[in-house]
Design brief:
NADH Oxidase; alpha+beta; binds flavin mononucleotide
Length: 174
C-alpha cells in the first residue's frame, strides 16, 4: 500500500491565499488534535489561537514570533501558539513526554487539516517570555511552538527526506 495522502501531500508553505478559515473548521481541527494518545491520558496540549479577522488578538500572537517568522505570517488565516502542561495532574510529577504528546496532537491536526485542504506551517521560532506575558500563560504551562494555518494555491513542494536506512536500525544501532 502507498503512503496515505494526508501524509504524502502535506508540506509547509510560506505563502497562503487570503481565504479565511471558519471557526467551525478550526474546531474540527482542534477536535482531531484532542483525539491523540497521551501518557496517562493527560492530554497536556493546549492551543491559543487567533483568526486574522480578529486583528487585535491576532497581533498579540503574531508579536510572539521571531522576526524571521513574522515576515511571512502577517496575513495567515489563523495563528496558534501551542502550550504544554509540564506536570501530571494526578501526582504532580514531571510529564517528560508532554511535548511528545503535543506532537502527536499536532500530527492529528495536520492530517485533518490536509484532508480539509488546509495547510499548516509549524514554527519553533517563538519568543517564549513574550508568549507567556502576552497570552497570560499560567505557571506550570509552557509555550512550545507556533502554527500558521491557511489555504494555499501553489504547487506542492517536496523537501528532501532521509532514507529509511538512515533512520531505522534492525536490532541495534549499527
Ligand atoms: C517543530 C517544528 C519547528 C519548525 N520551526 C520553523 C520555524 O521556526 N520557521 C520556519 O520557517 N519553519 C519551521 N518549521 C518548518 C520546517 O522547516 C519544515 O517542516 C521542514 O523543512 C520540512 O518541510 P515540510 O514541512 O514542507 O515537509 C518547523 C517545523 C517543525 C515541525
Amino acid at each position: 500500500m502507498e503512503i496515505i495522502d494526508v501524509i504524502s501531500k502535506r508540506f509547509s508553505p510560506y505563502e497562503f491565499n487570503d481565504k479565511p478559515i471558519s471557526k467551525q473548521d478550526l474546531n474540527t481541527l482542534f477536535e482531531a488534535a484532542g483525539k491523540a494518545a497521551s501518557a496517562f491520558n493527560e492530554q497536556p496540549w493546549r492551543f491559543i489561537y487567533a483568526l486574522k479577522s480578529d486583528e487585535k488578538i491576532f497581533n498579540t500572537i503574531w508579536e510572539c514570533l521571531v522576526e524571521g517568522n513574522q515576515k511571512w505570517t502577517k496575513d495567515v488565516a489563523v495563528l496558534i501558539i501551542t502550550v504544554v502542561k509540564k506536570e501530571f495532574t494526578q501526582n504532580g510529577k514531571a510529564n517528560v513526554t508532554a511535548t511528545h504528546d503535543l506532537g502527536l496532537a499536532v500530527g492529528n491536526l495536520s492530517a485533518q487539516a490536509t484532508a480539509m485542504g488546509i495547510h499548516l506551517h509549524q514554527m519553533s521560532g517563538i519568543l517564549h517570555e513574550k508568549a507567556i506575558s502576552n497570552l497570560n500563560i499560567p505557571e506550570g504551562y509552557e509555550p512550545v511552538t507556533a502554527i500558521a494555518l491557511g489555504y494555499y494555491d501553489g504547487e506542492f513542494v517536496e523537501k528532501p527526506r532521509k532514507a529509511i536506512t538512515e533512520i531505522t536500525f534492525e536490532g541495534k544501532w549499527k
